[in-house]
Design a protein that fits this description.
The complex is a heterodimer of chains A (180) and B (281). With 180 residues, chain A is mainly α. Chain A has helices spanning 2-11, 21-155, 160-179. Classes of the chains: A mainly alpha (180), B mainly alpha (281). At the A-B interface, α1 and α2 of A face α1, β2, α2, α3 and α4 of B.
């Protein structure tokens, strides 16, 4: 059967299994030019670019990892610093509180002592004043008694009425004096 | 394989003219349009050659533009690819990763990458013109181009084998170890035929015949649609809807075939290189 077909095709002017010269020539031209283009320009540029990109991506990934590690270390540092600061603050506060209670106690003690001292002074002053008053009163009472006695002696010889007047007048004087 | 391809051709080498109607089914002459320039010389340019040159120009512009964006990205240390650059990287990266590196490993994959990418992009570019309106025929539907690509693959895998193993390549390729001595002559003949003769032939024929069959199917569907709509009468007009639907579906199918054949051609080339590089099989 194959033989018959080939015979039949040989009879035809155009044989699809045998290339014409022009067919081969133009095909070769197409093939050669595109092979050259791919070989010389397209593939080298393609590979170079792809390799560079791979390298860049790998480099950037490594960089990113490094940066991340650094950031993590920094964060840990900051956290440690914060914890230390917090501890320090607590310590300072505790110390201040203790000191404050001590100071307060001191101040209270001082105040108490002051108050006592003042009280003491005041008591003494009052005592001294009282003493002085008693002494003054005592001396004045003596003088007054002498005044009264002399006045009584002067007026005694007149009447009883006048004696009574003298006593009243004396009492009024006394009252007036004590008011002053 | 060869017989299959030929029997497929059998259906189309003779134009079928249906009785009294004016409908002529497409024939193999579809693929031999009149020369437009340099007719009669070895450089005769017909429609298909023009399409190839158009594809060559478009592909060159595209891939050189990609090369420029790659180089620019490298020079400016801009590692965030633009949309256009990403497209290029996906396309070239597909051949590199999914075909070359998978079969050959990174080192050998990159070594043979120029050939593999060239084959992939040429086959894809030439196939896809089969469904582009106004072009409407695949640049790879004439045997010349698939043959040149197959020869490129053939030369490359033989070169790879000899470079790696010297003349030991012929021994590993033709006289595999572990075969009983009695069968060696037979195995030798089979391997000689399959490795050094059939490989390039099947590579070229598979692609050509896929494109030829696809084109003829599309022409048949759309020519029939045209005929049913404008030259037949009555109930036959309705059949045009059916043939048009077929044509539409086959157009979509041809897109798939275009990619698939590009992938298969490149993958087989890679596998042949890999077999040539292998220490023993």
């Amino acid at each position: 059967m194959t033989g018959r077909i080939i015979e039949k095709m040989a009879a035809e002017a155009n044989n699809p299994l045998l290339p014409a010269t022009a067919d081969l020539i133009w095909s070769s031209v197409v093939f050669a030019i595109l092979l050259l283009i791919f070989w010389r320009w397209v593939l080298p540029a393609f590979k170079k670019n792809l390799d560079a990109r791979t390298e860049a991506i790998e480099g950037r990934l490594a960089e990113a990892e490094k940066a991340q590690a650094e950031a993590a270390a920094k964060t840990a540092n900051i956290e440690a610093d914060q914890a230390a600061a917090r501890k320090e603050r607590a310590e300072i506060l505790d110390a201040a509180r203790a000191e404050a209670s001590v100071v307060a106690a001191e101040i209270q003690e001082q105040a108490r002592l002051n108050a006592e001292r003042l009280l003491e002074t005041a008591k003494k002053q009052i005592e001294a004043d009282t003493q002085a008053a008693i002494i003054t009163l005592r001396s004045e009472v003596g003088a007054l008694a002498i005044d009264l006695a002399s006045a009584v002696v002067k007026q005694n010889l007149k009447d009883d009425k006048s004696a009574a007047t003298i006593v009243d007048g004396f009492l009024a004087d006394l009252e007036k004096d004590s008011k002053n | 394989m060869l017989a299959n391809a030929l029997s497929l051709l059998n259906a189309v080498v003779t134009p079928v003219v249906t009785g009294d109607s004016g409908f002529v089914s497409p024939s193999i002459d579809e693929f031999y349009p009149e020369a437009i320039l340099f007719g009669g010389t070895p450089f005769a340019l017909n429609r298909i050659m023009m399409i190839r040159i158009l594809v060559l120009v478009l592909l060159s512009v595209l891939v050189l533009a990609w090369a420029r964006t790659f180089a620019k990205a490298y020079a400016t240390k801009n590692y965030v690819p633009s949309r256009f650059q990403m497209m290029g990287e996906i396309a070239v990266g597909f051949v590199r990763k999914s075909i070359a590196h998978d079969q050959l490993g990174e080192k050998d994959g990159d070594r043979f990458l120029p050939l593999l990418t060239t084959i992939f992009f040429i086959v894809l570019g030439m196939n896809i013109t089969g469904i582009i309106p106004t072009l409407n025929i695949a640049g790879s539907s004439l045997i010349g181009l698939p043959l040149v690509l197959a020869l490129g693959a053939y030369v490359t895998f033989i070169y790879a084998g000899f470079k790696k193993h010297g003349f030991g390549f012929l021994k590993t390729a033709l006289l595999p170890s572990g075969v009983p001595t009695v069968f060696l002559p037979l195995v030798f003949l089979i391997e000689l035929l399959s490795t050094f003769i059939l490989r390039p032939v099947t590579l070229a024929l598979r692609l050509t015949m896929n494109m030829v069959a696809g084109h003829l199917l599309l022409v048949l569907c759309f020519a029939a649609t045209q005929y049913f709509f404008f030259e037949s009468s009555g109930i036959f007009k309705v059949m045009g809807v059916g043939t048009f639907t077929f044509g539409f579906v086959f157009t979509l199918f041809e897109i798939l075939v275009a990619f698939l054949q590009a992938y298969v051609f490149t993958l087989l080339t890679t596998v042949y290189i890999q077999l040539a590089l292998a220490d023993d099989h």
